Each structure stands twice: as structure tokens, then as C-alpha cells.
Amino acid sequence: MRVGVLHGPNLDLLGTRQPDLYGTTTLAEIDSRLRDLAEELGVELDTLQSNHEGILLDWVRDGAPSLAGYVVNAAAYTHTSVALLDALVGVDRPYVEVHLTNLAARSRTRRRSLLAAHAVGVITGFGARSYELGLRALVAHVRDSTGNGGGPTGSERGG
Predict the structure, then answer these.
(1) How far apart are CA 140 and CA 119, in angstroms?
(2) Long-range CB contacts (< 8 A, 24+ apart) of 114-117?
(3) Which of 22, 70, 95, 131 is flagged as catalytic?
(4) 3-class secondary structure, 28
(5) Helix segments in the chain, DSSP class H
(6) Is residue 150 scored above 60 in pLDDT?
(7) Catalytic annotation, pick one of 7, 77, 99, 131
């Protein structure tokens, strides 16, 4: 099984950007931890960070045929990108939305997620560990949905 991990805008600044809010763990450290966890779970990872919405959209669409699902931290695009929502729904793969901070405790603008209603689940507020929890949850979901560890079909996908 292969899983995609999407990191949205400004997540390349983790470790130095507002460490009191986002912590001191860097994106490279998060990806390294995810690769270790993926190996433990017996899955492969593709990861992408971009500050450009179109690159994220193309990556979701182009990767879908070989991916069982996605772990998504869309960062600011969580609150603004109907296009990213359409891409994720359009490729018919399950995804788990993750965030370092608890969105419910953030400003009004950041409390609303356009992606959440179609996600298998949403994990927020556990810092860098949110990604690990999201990967575990997605892999378990896909395995439970398919019974064989492969990619789900549309009717098997969580809503």
C-alpha cells in the first residue's frame, strides 16, 4: 500500500515559524518520523510540501492511481480552497485531515475546514504527532475497508 502525505503552504517553515504555536519540530523531522512509521506499518509514502495551490492539486490528481489514500495538512488552504476539496473528492481516495494545532481553539477564520466533511476523520491539536495519528488511522481505515490492504473503491470509502 502506498499513501500520500500532503503538506500545505508555509509548513516548510516549521521549527522556526511561531514555535510557541506550532512547536519546534521541522517538516523534515515530521517526514522522517512518518517514513519510520510507514515502514513499521508496512506501507510506502509519497510526500509533498508546496506553497502553490496548483502544484498541490496536480499532485493529488496525478498520484491517485497509485495511492490508497492521503494524509492532508492543507494549512491555510484548509479554510479557503474549494479547488483542493474538489481534487480530493474527485480522485475518490480516502483522506485524513491533520493539523498541528486545535482548530477549534484558533481564530474564527481558522476554525472552519472546507475539507473536513469529506475526510475519513480529522485529527487536530497533537502537534507533530497529529501526522502519525493520521497515518495510523488512514492505514487502518483502508485495510478495514478493503480486507486486503489495497486501495478502496468509491463505495468502500469513508464519508
Answers:
(1) 14
(2) 114/78, 114/79, 114/80, 114/81, 114/82, 114/84, 114/85, 115/72, 115/74, 115/78, 115/84, 115/85, 115/88
(3) 22
(4) helix
(5) 19-22, 27-41, 53-63, 82-90, 108-111, 129-146
(6) no
(7) 99
Crossing angle of the two packed helices 82-90 and 53-63, in degrees rounded to 10: 10
- 22 in active site: yes
| Vertex 138 angle, CA 132 and 143, to 5° | 130
91-130 residue pLDDT tens: 999 999 999 887 766 667 776 788 999 999 999 999 999 9
Residue 108, C-beta contacts closer than 8 angstroms, at least 6 positions apart: none
> How many angstroms separate the CA atoms of 135 and 143, rounded?
12
What are the residue ranges of helices labelled H in 45-128? 53-63, 82-90, 108-111
Active site residue 52: no
